[in-house]
């Protein structure tokens, strides 16, 4: 296979792996892309629609967009192509200073699915920065007595690019007295040193001009230069020495401006001007140079601006101590910044509903929230909560995203609107809080039937009423809302005296007023029983019934009528036959005597006969009751044995007793019943019912009694 074919195969495999990687990460809710820095606005980053499996029309229908969290946005979603593009020109060195891998993050929300996807974009470096020296010209003072091989620190160049595009090498312009040596620092950086290759003679040359060139590894390579002026001075045999090679200090980010953070100290054994030590910063970033200030005489480092842990958690400085003879020493200063809980949690409502039906199932998503806290550690740990007693709960979805869902079924008739307050609190001491309010209106469902104000209704209506008179008004209320709460009334079907009920009364559909459609006659209809139905406007409609009783009140609207004698026809009156309404009574009539007439006599006789029969019936009934009472008294008295008569002289069957012997009695009666006597004569008695045992059983009739 040719070299071109192999390269094409490698590109195809790399493309396949990148597609598979993007698909795998999309399945786990995260997309990863890379783009070089300094690309113009609108440059292609990645095909989001393809990686998420979304069709282009679905981008608008589902509300797909980059989530705005109130910070600077470097990427945007192209609505027509579904591509992730750059929103502006990105400078990697400005965003990710001293960071080996520059990564930007954003979130893509699909509102139609209430789903959030994380997007990670790596900003790759290009060689857009040349190495540069902090000072274009540097002066070194070297004693003429300095021995050959001595080395002097030179200013380092700085290249904000990374990798091969960063600083790679130094060169020194040719000079017979000096040579260049490059040493590796603790962090892997290159440190140039000027070596003395030939003895100096101040009388021969008091100054030497050198050029130091720094190059990066880009293609093409970029370079930067610094001019070095070497001044030959008289002898100075002792260099300043720091008390420690590295100073480390940690300060809180809220330390006041103007505070002294650390003091470095170096000593020089020389005397006079050669023993006076001065301090200077030799290695410091542009950003740190605006935050810290070094006192050249005292060696104190003072804070010029407020620190921010979220911007940088540590700073590295290099301090140089030198004497008047250009001898020096260097020390490393590390200033660590500790976090203070100075950032409130930021709670953002990414997507939210404004209305929800009251029959929504438990677990329905109401809102999607995002929370973040720029603090670190416990100060950056955020807890979210809802007010107690609301029918909602919080669920964590992706990283710092939460969603508010219903915890139970809703009831609009109890609560029609909710203002749900979501609170976010960090773990600081004291904790900082923020909140957001979700306004949610509960939509009505027809789940309540109309309810009448009374269990039953009744009314009284005088007869001979006017047609269309108001009888009464029934009222029903519905706890629902809108059309579902609109109540209409109607009569249930029925008949009265063979006619439809609707021909007697009617009910107004909107107000429930019951009207009489005709004039009622008490002598024909004395009461009406009917049912009224109340029905709401839901779909399907719900209804309830109530009974209504209408009582017709009698009025004196009928004159008395003579039943007898009947009025004579007009023809009879004209002929002289028939009753004229006048009867004659003889002068000899007694007071209380009727007017003459056979019908009147028979009527009187019939009434008298019925009265006599009724009176006779009452007397007979009374006699029977007395007789029965007397019999009961006699039976009660005879239930025990007669005094003086042995029990063995009686025989009884079915409650009837008879004497077995005859007795003669002597009865004495006096006017006073308490002295009456009844005496039995024992000598005059005789057997009246001889006891004869059965042929097979010689036992006596009286059981336990001895016949003897």
Automatic annotation (TrEMBL):
Domain Cadherin: 74-133, 134-242, 243-347, 348-452, 453-562
CDD domains assigned: Cadherin_repeat
TM ranges: 602-624
Sequence segments annotated as region (Disordered): 689-708
Gene3D superfamilies: Cadherins
Mode of membrane association: Single-pass type I membrane protein
Gene Ontology MF, one: calcium ion binding
Listed GO biological process terms: homophilic cell adhesion via plasma membrane adhesion molecules
Alphabetized InterPro entries for the sequence: Cadherin-like_dom, Cadherin-like_sf, Cadherin_C, Cadherin_CS, Cadherin_N, Protocadherin/Cadherin-CA
GO cellular component: plasma membrane
Secretion signal, residue range per the UniProt entry: 1-29
Name used for this protein in its record: PCDG5 protein
Taxonomic source organism: Malurus elegans (Red-winged fairywren)
């Amino acid at each position: 296979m040719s070299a071109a074919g192999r390269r094409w195969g490698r590109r195809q495999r790399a493309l396949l792996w990148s597609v598979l990687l993007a698909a795998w990460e999309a399945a786990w809710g995260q997309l990863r892309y890379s783009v070089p820095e300094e690309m113009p606005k609108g440059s292609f980053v990645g095909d989001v629609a393809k990686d998420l499996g979304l069709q282009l029309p679905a981008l608008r229908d589902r509300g797909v967009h980059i989530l705005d969290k109130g910070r600077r946005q470097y990427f945007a979603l192209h609505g027509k192509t579904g591509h992730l593009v750059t929103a502006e020109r990105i400078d990697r060195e400005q965003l990710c200073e001293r960071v080996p891998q520059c990564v930007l993050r954003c979130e893509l929300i699909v509102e139609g699915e209430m789903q959030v996807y994380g997007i990670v974009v790596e900003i790759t470096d290009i060689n857009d920065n040349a190495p540069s020296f902090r000072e274009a010209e540097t002066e070194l003072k070297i004693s003429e007595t300095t021995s050959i091989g001595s080395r002097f620190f030179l200013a380092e160049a700085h290249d904000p690019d990374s990798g091969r595009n960063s600083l790679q090498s130094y060169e020194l312009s040719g000079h017979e007295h000096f040579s260049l040596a490059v040493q590796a620092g603790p962090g892997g950086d290159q440190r140039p040193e000027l070596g003395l290759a030939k003895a100096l003679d101040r009388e021969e040359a008091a100054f030497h001009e050198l050029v130091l060139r720094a190059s990066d590894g880009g293609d093409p390579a970029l370079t930067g230069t610094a001019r070095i002026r070497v001044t030959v001075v008289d002898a100075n045999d002792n260099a300043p020495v720091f008390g420690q090679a590295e100073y480390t200090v940690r300060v809180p980010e809220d330390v006041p401006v103007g505070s002294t953070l650390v003091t470095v100290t170096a000593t020089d054994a020389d005397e006079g001007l050669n023993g006076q030590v001065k301090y200077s910063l030799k290695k410091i970033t542009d950003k740190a140079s605006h935050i810290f200030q070094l006192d050249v005489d005292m060696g104190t480092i003072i804070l010029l601006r407020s620190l921010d842990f979220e911007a940088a958690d540590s700073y590295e400085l290099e301090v140089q101590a030198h004497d008047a003879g250009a001898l020096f020493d260097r020390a490393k200063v590390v200033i660590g910044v500790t976090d203070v809980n100075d950032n409130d949690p930021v709670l953002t409502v990414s997507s939210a509903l404004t209305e929800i039906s009251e029959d929504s199932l438990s677990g329905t998503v109401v809102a999607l929230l995002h929370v973040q806290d720029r603090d670190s550690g416990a100060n950056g740990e955020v807890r979210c909560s809802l007010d107690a007693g609301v029918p909602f709960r919080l669920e964590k979805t992706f990283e710092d995203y939460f969603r508010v869902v219903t915890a139970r079924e809703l009831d609009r008739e109890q609560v029609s609107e909710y203002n749900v307050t979501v609170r976010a609190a960090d773990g600081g001491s004291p904790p900082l809080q923020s909140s957001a309010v979700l306004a949610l209106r509960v939509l009505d469902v027809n789940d309540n039937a109309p309810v009448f104000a009374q269990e039953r209704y009744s009314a009284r209506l005088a007869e001979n009423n006017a047609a269309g008179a108001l009888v009464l008004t029934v009222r029903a209320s519905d706890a629902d809302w809108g059309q579902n709460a609109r109540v209409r009334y109607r009569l249930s079907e029925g008949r009265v005296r063979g006619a439809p009920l609707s021909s007697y009364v009617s009910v107004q559909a909107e107000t429930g007023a019951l009207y009489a459609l005709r004039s009622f006659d008490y002598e024909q209809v004395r009461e009406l029983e009917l049912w009224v139905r109340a029905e709401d406007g839901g779909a399907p409609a719900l209804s309830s019934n109530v009974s209504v009783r209408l009582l017709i009140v009698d009025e004196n609207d009928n004159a008395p009528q003579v039943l007898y004698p009947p009025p004579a026809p007009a023809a009879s009156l004209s002929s002289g036959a028939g009753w004229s309404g006048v009867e004659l009574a003889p002068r000899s009539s007694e007071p209380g005597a009727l007017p003459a007439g056979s019908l009147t006599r028979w009527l009187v006789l019939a009434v008298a006969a019925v009265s006599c029969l009724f009176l006779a019936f009452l007397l007979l009934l009374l006699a029977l009751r007395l007789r029965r009472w007397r019999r009961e008294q006699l039976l009660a008295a005879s239930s025990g044995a007669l005094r003086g008569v042995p029990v063995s002289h009686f025989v009884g069957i079915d409650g009837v007793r008879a004497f077995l012997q005859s007795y003669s009695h002597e009865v004495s009666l006096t006017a006073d019943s308490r002295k009456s006597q009844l005496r039995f004569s024992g000598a005059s008695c005789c057997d009246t019912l001889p006891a004869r045992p059965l042929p097979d059983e010689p036992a006596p009739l009286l059981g336990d009694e001895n016949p003897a």
